Amino acid sequence: MLPAKTPTLSRLSLSLALLLAGAASAAHAEVAIDVIGGSEISFEGLVQADGNWFDNDLADLNGAGANGSDSEFELRRAELVLKGKGPGNIDWVVGYDAKADKYLDVNARYKFGGNGNTFLQLGQFKQPNSLEELSSTKNNDFISKATVTNTFATARRLGAAAGYGDGNWSVTASVFGRELTRNLAHGSGHGVRATWAPVNGEGNVVHLGLSYVDNDTDTLRLRARPNADLATQRLVDTGTLANTDRLRTVGLEGMWIKGPFKLQGEYYSADVSRYGEGVGDFGGDGWYLSGLWNITGETWGYRSGVPTTGLPDAPASGKWQLGLRYDTLDLDDGRLLAAAVPGGAPRVDGVLGGKQDAWTIGANWYWRSNFKFALNYVMVDSSRYSASAGTVVDDNPNILEARAQFHW
């Protein structure tokens, strides 16, 4: 088993080396390269190294003791991004994650009148849904996105989008196909997201949003990790849903920023259309609510329907944040019936994928312009029908998570 872990340790060592090397360099948000053909080209990167320590209940979240311990260490992301501004109102981006071996944003956008909310876009980009999914990865409030976001939000796909709006409201619509990297997400569809900020001032924002995504799917499996990105086991899982036709997801968003405080929440409802005799449709839903406090007094900005995270007011001591989040996911859409024979196992009518609730307590430290360190503690309560046990089984683990991040 140990040799199989060697590449993981090498990637972790590489990421830590980059983190330490960056400490000796001047702090910059990006590296300017040149102006070619009227386009100002810059280079950005993001390296994240994660550690998870599992206090397992029933399931071994670390993959049946794959490395002989209850911990996991991994290079989470190694993103390399080229960006261009110009010529004119055109901007473009080419991103690649060397850790996941997949393309990130690869697109070009034309902004009408220089307005970032009124545009045409072609290529691969995050689809117009989910406040948390659209927010910058390097500034996520918690190490893992909410369970319901990871399950229902539609991320990057190849397609075309059009947006219209201003600083206080926006409407974005898209059509999309598969993910650019082969053998990943596929299925054509369309989406739309509308946002409105009735209050939009410095350190004082109220945001409301509504989204809808509809895409086709031949087979589908909905499942979720226990708010730990390095966990190899899922505690809630619908199994493979055969004969699926369409997946339709509705999302509701809300956010309130008041000085150093941010309150944010989302609700998702997903409906799966299925065909075939004796096969019923499936529905699942979930939501999260999170609160964040900048202890050092900084606030957030707001642009294009998402919050923006600024630099520390005092770079030498950095910016400190405390956060708390509750999220819940329900993948049960069925019931248990009496056994076909006396003493036999109950029969399942529908799909019983399980329910999962989680509390996450977190602390973030942004140091200077390039570094972020995060520590999270996650408490999970899950329940799912087990065919082998013939009953609903509870599994309630706890996880300690840490992340070191270097961005330029």
UniProtKB/TrEMBL annotation:
<feature type="signal peptide">
    <location>
        <begin position="1"/>
        <end position="29"/>
    </location>
</feature>
<dbReference type="InterPro" id="IPR023614">
    <property type="entry name" value="Porin_dom_sf"/>
</dbReference>
<keyword id="KW-0732">Signal</keyword>
<protein>
    <submittedName>
        <fullName>Phosphate-selective porin O and P</fullName>
    </submittedName>
</protein>
<dbReference type="Pfam" id="PF07396">
    <property type="entry name" value="Porin_O_P"/>
</dbReference>
<dbReference type="InterPro" id="IPR010870">
    <property type="entry name" value="Porin_O/P"/>
</dbReference>
